[in-house]
Amino acid sequence: MSKKTVTVEQIGSPIRREKSQRATLVGLGLNKMHRQRTLEDTPQVRGMIKKISHLVRVVQEK
Fold it and tell me: CB within 10 Å: which end of the chain, N or C, has fewer?
């Protein structure tokens, strides 16, 4: 059984954002515009995506 994954892409700049939002981006492995990461779909990752939903978009879910 393969684990579910979610691919996110950074679409917003962390400039003039709270430090916690910038730290969340780095926690997801994002720090430059249009960079994509495929992550394991866990409640923790979903919460991080929800917190910075204005800076990232979900590209693909498996």
Answer: N
